Structure prediction request, 220 residues.
Amino acid sequence: DIQLTQSPPSLSASIGDTVTLSCRASQGISTFLAWFQQQPGKAPKSLIYAASSLHSGVPSKFSGSGSGTYFTLTIRRLQPDDFATYYCQQYDSFPITFGQGTRLEIK
Amino acid sequence: QVQMVESGGGVVQPGGSLRLSCVTSGFNFSAYGMHWVRQAPGKGLEWVSYMGRDGVNSYYADSVKGRFTISRDNSKKIVFLQMKSLEVDDTAVYYCAAGATYWGLGALVIVSS
Prediction:
């Protein structure tokens, strides 16, 4: 199984900051990586697929990059509703796996 | 607009069964592979199962293989998850997802004696 390791596990930031979250795969997955945002008590929301493509309706303040084993999600100009938990997911091969999540908190 | 609504969750004793349904609308259901993903209380997301667009191929996490069965009805735009021999560790909110794009609201399954 492909393991995804997200770092940091948690991150404190201020309104207006720019943050970068990372996701490392245990083996190469090309660009078969997605990012999701989850607010407490809510369903996940799809942000990015194919490592860097934004889903329709997702603001351009979110950007993804990477290929192979290392990926990043950058969020610019943090707003209150950006503080959530972010998960990466690989869909290169079954079983599909998720990272353990990065919790983004307000400083 | 896109709607995905799970139903069929509830409280069941260990060893029992439940069948989850996910009724969808607002998108081309037959164009998407469908997933079930779960989240145990206070934990992260765990992929459970996937069925391809045509309903032929299916895949399962090792933790549910042999106990859960995914199926879909493209004419009714519904995906199902039949869960048997439920264990306490199956307690979670179960989400259906269309590809990596659309997500349902979730259905809570509690396995407890």
